């Protein structure tokens, strides 16, 4: 039995909660995955997986094995990257998760990290806040870009690296097409924006919770006529339809090439939401992770992030 491979299969089963999908993700057959898990049970002399007609869950002993599996696989990655890296050139994959509204910033970060360290391969995933936190806790991602205010909602201890404050804009079609790019218009009150037909994120998204609370603080309720969990759908709904949308600066910056649009800062109240990179505090960072943490605290990067997330007056 290859212990590391069997542990990977176990972690995959936890992530997918389905034998066939876990096997597919590991590029093996379902019988091969099942046999490896049974061999793991024989090795530790405990039942790890609760089985029925389909995957049911893990036994208490299985949960202990799963937690150890995550840490062993993480330490294996740390060691492998250390052996392959040189003093000034880290090597290896870096799993980065980001809430959808922060994906443009995560993309910029990954591009700058890879340009600085060509042997580092960032993998950027768009995840809901809940999924982001679960994957960070399970060590299936290294770094998470999300809402700082949610850090205390999980049992795992996290370290935060503050990045920027999320500002909010009403995105709408402009009265005329601008000569160069999207323009920043005059501020608009949340109360006035509530009267407009809106495309907003779906209610389970944390950004929607922030937006709804902002409208409530202004004594009103938004008129959402389209809902989506896709930031691309939000932008294209404004471009192609007769709706407006509420977007943070990071998304507005990402669609600045649409000359027919304008973005109005939302005020009364002015809402600022802290966004941070977050990492598991209790595990040893890999060489790629060390490079990422260094860049996340670099002044030049933070200024770049602020330029594309704040009030966007330089657009």
Describe the protein in words:
This protein is an alpha/beta fold. The chain has three domains: about 5-70, Arc Repressor Mutant, subunit A; about 85-165 and about 275-305, D-Maltodextrin-Binding Protein, domain 2; about 170-270, D-Maltodextrin-Binding Protein, domain 2 (3-Layer(aba) Sandwich). The protein contains twelve helices and 14 strands. It has helices spanning about 5-15, 20-25, 30-45, 60-85, 105-115, 130-135, 190-195, 205-215, 230-240, 250-255, 285-295, 300-305, and strands at about 50, 55-60, 90-100, 120-125, 145, 160-165, 170-175, 185, 190, 195-200, 225-230, 245-250, 260-265, 275-280. Strand 3, helix 5 (about 105-115) and strand 4 form a beta-alpha-beta unit. Helix 1 (about 5-15) packs across helix 2 (about 20-25) and helix 1 (about 5-15) crosses helix 4. It is globular. This is LysR family transcriptional regulator.
Describe this protein with a few key phrases.
Arc Repressor Mutant, subunit A, D-Maltodextrin-Binding Protein, domain 2, 7-stranded mixed sheet, 12 helices, 14 strands, about 45% helix, transcription regulation, DNA-binding, transcription, WH_DNA-bd_sf
What's the structural blueprint in terms of helices and strands?
Layout: H1 3-16, H2 19-25, H3 30-44, E1 49-51, E2 55-58, H4 60-84, E3 92-98, H5 103-116, E4 120-126, H6 129-137, E5 143-147, E6 158-166, E7 168-173, E8 183-184, E9 188-189, H7 190-193, E10 197-201, H8 206-217, E11 223-228, H9 231-240, E12 244-248, H10 249-254, E13 261-267, E14 273-280, H11 287-296, H12 299-307
